[in-house]
Write a structure and sequence with these properties.
With 266 residues, the chain is an alpha/beta fold. It folds into two domains: 26-188, 3-Layer(aba) Sandwich (Rossmann fold), CATH 3.40.50; 191-264, Orthogonal Bundle (Helicase, Ruva Protein, domain 3), CATH 1.10.8. Helix content is 51%, strand content 12%. The chain is built from twelve helices and five strands. It has helices spanning 2-5, 26-41, 55-65, 83-93, 102-118, 136-146, 165-170, 176-181, 193-207, 216-226, 230-246, 254-264, and strands at residues 44-49, 71-77, 123-129, 157-163, 184-188. Strands 2-3-4-1-5 form a five-stranded parallel β-sheet, with helices on both faces. α6 (136-146) links the parallel β3 and β4. α4 (83-93) packs parallel to α5. The longest helix has 17 residues, at 102-118. It is elongated and about 65 Å long.
């Protein structure tokens, strides 16, 4: 394994890195600040990005920062999510068996939210991932869910997370009523060249091995291939480390990156 060759204690370019060790760009700082505001005020937010640009990282960072004595996080990720399964999924996480009919399950959820807030003093933060896959019925249900106590307050913080096509979908006229209820919109951009370099350095720091592995020109090629998307950076760096270790090369230059991209990556 390349970790041994490069004297690394941990694997650097994988998804399972502890949240406190993840690279945090200035844009991620801004996104996290907005999400904390959403949680505190029980707002409705939409988070979007291109594929592989750090939505999951942002959500991991955000949820890990919420004090467990003040917030309860509910998470759903289902490409076939329907209103009934939406309520059932949330109630299951709250330890409540959902009633069959949607209206009954929605009333159950509202009652549970009141108990959690009124008795336990917590705010529920609901995150719906892969939200760009939601169909019309489920998106419309969001408007009905937020119609609570004649609009005097939201019952919980609700965050939809998805690819950029989610926002394109919400801009359609049919979703104007949903859009009007939106409080915060965040788009996570791709890294620039400087941030790509910082990202690589941060992950090598986490690995606790050598930091002088990728030359500046190698980072140029990594950036060119990945367009600053973290998932693509991880992929090319991992393949390059394997390629270099198999050839007993301690330094990865631009020629090696080009070879790896041409031979091993789509």
């Amino acid at each position: 394994m390349y970790e041994t060759f490069f004297e690394m204690k941990y694997t650097p370019f994988v998804n399972g890195i502890p949240v406190e060790k993840l690279y945090q760009s200035s844009m991620l700082d801004e996104t996290l600040a907005r999400l904390e505001f959403v949680a505190e005020k029980r707002l409705f937010a939409v988070i979007t990005s291109d594929v592989g640009c750090g939505k999951t990282t942002a959500i991991r960072k955000f949820t890990s920062s919420l004090p467990s004595d003040q917030y309860q996080v509910l998470y759903l990720s289902d490409s076939k999510l329907t209103p009934r399964w939406f309520y059932k999924g949330l109630l299951d996480q709250l330890g409540v068996e959902a009633k069959f009919y949607r209206g009954d399950a929605k009333r159950q959820l509202h009652n549970q939210l009141q108990v959690i807030r009124g008795i336990h003093g917590k705010t529920v933060v609901t995150i719906v991932d892969e939200a760009h896959l939601l169909d019309k019925e489920m998106i419309e249900e969001i408007r009905f869910l937020l119609n609570y106590k004649m609009d005097s307050s939201n019952p919980m913080a609700l965050i939809l997370v998805g690819q950029n096509e989610l926002w394109e979908k919400l801009k359609l006229q049919r979703y104007a009523a949903v859009r009007q209820r939106l409080d915060i919109k965040c788009e996570i951009p791709q890294y620039d060249r400087s941030q790509t370099s910082e990202y690589i350095t941060q992950h090598l720091n986490y690995a606790q091995g050598s930091l002088d592995i990728f030359t500046d020109k190698a980072v140029d090629e990594i950036y060119k291939y990945s367009a600053g998307a973290p998932r693509a950076i991880n992929k090319v760096c991992t393949h390059a480390l394997m390629f270099a270790s198999q050839r007993a090369k301690k330094l990865i230059d631009d020629h090696m990156i080009k070879t790896v991209i041409d031979l091993e990556l789509p």
